[in-house]
Amino acid sequence: MRPIFLVLCLSTCLAVPAAAVNVRTQPLYIFVGIADLALEVPVTQRITLMPNVRAQADLSEVQWGLQVNIYRQRRDENGWHAGLHAQTGALNSSSVESSYSVAMLSNYQWNWDEFNLTLSLGPQLKYEREASTQPDDTLDNWTLWPNARLSLGWQF
Q1: What is the dihedral sign for C-alpha 132, 134, 135, 140?
Q2: What are the boundaries of the signal sequence (predicted)?
Q3: Rounded CA gap, 42 and 142, in Å?
Q4: Domains held by the chain: number
């Protein structure tokens, strides 16, 4: 799964002029020891694909994700856009075998030349499969909660 994801991300990035790429991060994760990086690549003036990766500071656990954004206006203008985000992997959990989440986000983005700031809010549905001490026994957990994000971006 990961090699296919990386090939998709790289091929998408190579097909787009470098001036159109937006590198994003969620800086608040730093306070809990997590690094976050996303690469927003335009498909059209209003639609972007954004592969992302999050990792523990020591790289012991990694999450991979992909977000699709649909902008109300052009993506380089201040305004609203909707996002659908899917993520795999679990951070800060040694008992989780696998973890998947999906979020629907309502976003507002401010742009200043190459710099941009985005606030996001929406529901997130998460599935986790936890390992058990008994063989062939796992625990499946589903959770739904609000998801809020603040991200900073630099467009190149």
Answers
A1: negative
A2: 1-20
A3: 32
A4: 1
Written as six digits, the tokens of 155 are: 């467009």
Long-range contacts of 85-88 (CB under 8 A, 24+ apart): 87/52, 87/63, 88/1, 88/63, 88/64
Query: How far is the C-alpha of 77 from the C-alpha of 3, rounded, in Å?
Result: 34
Total-model pTM = 0.75
Q: Domain span at residue 86? A: 2-155
Burial class (CB in 10 A: 0-12, 13-18, 19+), 151: buried
Digit-by-digit pLDDT tens for the chain (156 residues) are 455 544 455 555 555 554 479 999 999 988 988 899 999 999 988 899 999 998 888 877 888 899 999 998 877 788 999 999 898 876 555 656 678 889 999 999 999 988 999 999 999 888 877 766 666 666 778 888 888 999 999 988
